[in-house]
Amino acid sequence: MANQVLYGFTNLKDVFTDRVETVGIPTVNTAIDATIAEHNRQMNALMALFAQTTTEYQIRYKTPAAARLQPLDESGRARPIKALGHYDVAFPLQDAGVAWGQTYKASRKMTVQEANNILNTVLTADRRWMRDHVLAALFGNVNWTFTDDEHGALTIKPLANSDTDTYLIQTGSDAGATDTHYLAQAAAISDSADPFSAIYTELTEHPENSGDVIVLIPTNLKTSIETLSGFYPIQDGNLQYGNAATLLRNTPNVALPGTLLGYHEAKVYIVEWKSLPSSYMVATMTGGDRPLAMRQEIETSLQGFNRVADRNDHPFYESQYLRIAGFGALNRVGALVYRVGNGSYAIPTNYSSPMA
């Protein structure tokens, strides 16, 4: 990725070998600012699969409630009901940054391409931080306490983990029930141990979820999933398929953090996400409230990923970049994690909360 031409630098490709000083520092700064703005737009689109943004530190999440009409006579009047259930969730807020620096002499010698490549490394650092914190919020199956500077101790909850919070299930039941969305199977994936029907059922049984089911898989499970009799690969545009071939006609209309591999007849799309730890799958749906909330500061100038300062301490110069965000469960049944190869769920190594 070191040679990738970033969004704001596209119009500068013909001067990549020239010095920044020659092209003009304001010109390169404009390219940097445009690239960061596009980076934030793309990150927001990608995060939309998992999280919706909020500036609230705590929310009372309203859940659907079961209700039926009441029998009435000519002079009858219905009794008021509670139209919604609820549970409380809270969200952390963490600061993270990255900086790059150089000497005065190096700054005079820097080419436009070097500036492009350095910025690419900076943006990659932000993508990795955001990805890791999203995954930690999904993989962690225990409550943890975040000490907020303004609001004190906040209890950050994971996805549904068999605690006392209850969720309505679309089975005709009038009462909510506890649930867990941390599942596991000891057997390797095969036609006799195919988890995708269970994944589909677990997500679609909750009325707050809607749309398509997306299952993100790690690379080590790719081969076993592709050999399932119920799996259908996405059509390769470079191949001509025979009349007897069953082809995938539709694809989900959402930004995906990996490569769409195909479709399982259990009505789920299969996406390879190479960043996932081995043997852990993550599933969610494209409609309804997102499983996570991403908390940001109220002030718009503190939202997103931004260059916040340039430090001049001759002969040393540096640029500082800042991200302020935090993730916690919102719709606690809006996603699930599925471990393969062990009958008991455990948080994968390096994904416990709080993550630095």
List the helices and strands in order: HHEEEEHHEEEHEHEEEEEEEE
Structural class: alpha+beta
Strand order of the largest sheet: 7-16-12-8-11-10-9
Largest sheet, in brief, is: 7 strands, mixed
Q: What is the C-alpha radius of gyration, as a whole number of Å?
A: 24 Å
Distance between the termini: 25 Å
Give the count of helical stretches: 6
Low-confidence spans: pLDDT under 50, at least 5 residues? none
Helical coverage, percent range: 10-25%
What proportion strand? 25-35%
Molecular structure report:
- The protein has six helices and 16 strands.
- With 356 residues, the protein is α+β, with helices and mostly antiparallel strands.
- The chain has a seven-stranded mixed beta sheet. Strands 1, 4, 13, 14 and 15 form a five-stranded mixed beta sheet that branches. It has a two-stranded antiparallel sheet with strand order 2-3.
- Strand 14 and strand 15 form a beta hairpin.
- Helix 2 packs parallel to helix 4.
- The mean pLDDT is 92.
Topology:
Layout: H1 20-23, H2 25-47, E1 51-54, E2 58-64, E3 84-90, E4 94-103, H3 104-109, H4 112-139, E5 144-148, E6 152-156, E7 182-185, H5 196-204, E8 209-217, H6 222-226, E9 231-233, E10 259-264, E11 268-272, E12 280-288, E13 292-295, E14 305-313, E15 316-329, E16 335-340
Parallel strand pairs: 1-13, 7-16, 8-11
Antiparallel strand pairs: 2-3, 4-15, 5-6, 8-12, 9-10, 10-11, 12-16, 13-15, 14-15
Task: Provide a compact summary of the structure.
This protein has helices at residues 20-23, 25-47, 104-109, 112-139, 196-204, 222-226; strands at residues 51-54, 58-64, 84-90, 94-103, 144-148, 152-156, 182-185, 209-217, 231-233, 259-264, 268-272, 280-288, 292-295, 305-313, 316-329, 335-340.
